[in-house]
Fold this protein.
Amino acid sequence: MMQLMVKGNQVTSGKLSYNFYEKDKNEGTLIGVLKGDTLVADYTFMSKGISSVRQVVFLRKGNIYVEGYGDVVEVASGKVIFKDIKQLKFDGKSVLSKVDCKS
């Protein structure tokens, strides 16, 4: 599940939750930017009691967002980023469909 608050092309706040079968649930916050049809954001989340930050990239295709995957590297701050965003694969393993928000 992903919820975004967008002002212009900036994602000012957002939430992202992963709940994969037979895996620990993972949820956190998003801050980032929309570049055309691409969302590039920092995902801050707790895992096993430790706060972590990793870059996430989603490609918007109509009413769905497809998550990108590729080679990553850890930078000095401990943040995990993609080596080259242009080389990401959007193969449809993780697809988010748009639904109406509850008021």
